[in-house]
Amino acid sequence: MALMFTRIARNFAKAGYFPTDEPTLERCLSALEPSPGLMCILDPCAGEAAAIAEIAHDLGRDRVRSYAVEYDLERATNARRLTDRCLHADLMDTFISRQAFGLLFLNPPYGDLVRDQCGGYEFHGRARLEKLFYQRTFPLLQYDGVLIFIIPVYTLDAELVGWLTRHFVELRAYRAVETKFKQVVIFGRRARQRDQVTDDARAVRAMLLKAGRGEAELDELPHEWPFLPYLIPSSLSEPEHFYRNSLEPEQFAAEVARLKGLWPSLDMHLGVAQQSLRPPARALSRWHLALALAAGAISGVVRAKSGRTLVVKGDTHKEKSSTTEYTKSEDGKTIESRVLTDRFIPVIRAWDMTPGSATLGQVLTIR
């Protein structure tokens, strides 16, 4: 247990944070077996990432990519030192590739929810944080991937147990070594529903429901795993998406400092307006004049050789011209047709700034 620190490993409640105790984590490791390929593992409620770092170390650090999500800034900062990728984010504000991880280590926050905090999920039983985090994260686990789910035993109601038995096979549940928070550790392998064995699912369902109602006590998690270990499947590639939807405040501040606002691109955005335009080679036709006006190329201060000074702004507007045509049909009737044609009329507004001019200060219209 080279990576575990006593300060991190102790199991206590701190702002909804229940880190996994060291004895329970040690016994969980004996139930896991690495595959020969690259493995991607996820802890969506990582705390200081001691648990996910221990799992990665035990499976083979050179063949594991560890991912974590943590809401608290201080804990996320510490977790980044122990994981390959760690998001400081609310899990509900993240975008993570589905079916991308071979192991999901889920020790969510514990507590009741009010209905407007359910994040779009509908609960028919008791609304709990454990259920919300389960619904959000189990689709991230690839098929044949392994779930380690640590929750208080009293949250095992009919709804949660139904989800577990529908989504997972080879389900096994044990009492955690530390009993202060009445935690249970549930192992399972994700499978498609058509691959599940109905009789086994019913037996596991009955056992979990009895434990949740307090009618039966689960065995303590064994020192040595008595069954074939859960094989962590390899991943074809690393997750394509693993980021939070909103910018972290620290990340935003760093980007502003790096880009220095818009000042480095000031000339690019405003320099065009400061450039002097060359006069055309010949007089503009009405079509060229309308095009230049529509593009805003005719504007600014214009000084004639005579000294007249105008501040001009060009524009165009559309008018319709009407023509009437008369034709005769085969039966001799006269048919009158009116044809409307769009015409683009260039207009220049000029503010006369010529000293001593009779129209000084007046706005003139040049058509």
Word description of this protein:
- The protein is an alpha/beta fold.
- Helices cover 25% and strands 30% of the residues.
- It has 2 domains: 6-248, Vaccinia Virus protein VP39 (Rossmann fold); 282-366, no CATH class.
- The chain contains 10 helices and 15 strands.
- Strands 4-3-2-6-7-9-8 form a 7-stranded mixed beta sheet, sandwiched between helices. It has a 4-stranded antiparallel beta sheet with strand order 12-13-14-15. It has a two-stranded parallel ribbon with strand order 1-10.
- α6 (158-167) runs antiparallel to α7 (198-213).
- The radius of gyration is 36 Å and the shape is elongated.
- The model is unreliable at 1-15 (pLDDT under 50).
Set down the secondary structure blueprint.
Elements: H1 6-9, H2 22-29, E1 32-34, E2 39-43, H3 50-59, E3 64-70, H4 73-79, E4 85-88, E5 94-96, E6 101-106, H5 129-137, E7 141-152, H6 158-167, E8 168-175, E9 183-190, H7 198-213, E10 230-232, E11 242-244, H8 249-259, H9 266-274, H10 286-294, E12 299-303, E13 309-328, E14 334-352, E15 363-366
Parallel strand pairs: 1-10, 2-3, 2-6, 3-4, 6-7
Antiparallel strand pairs: 5-11, 7-9, 8-9, 12-13, 13-14, 14-15
Helix pairs in contact: 6-7
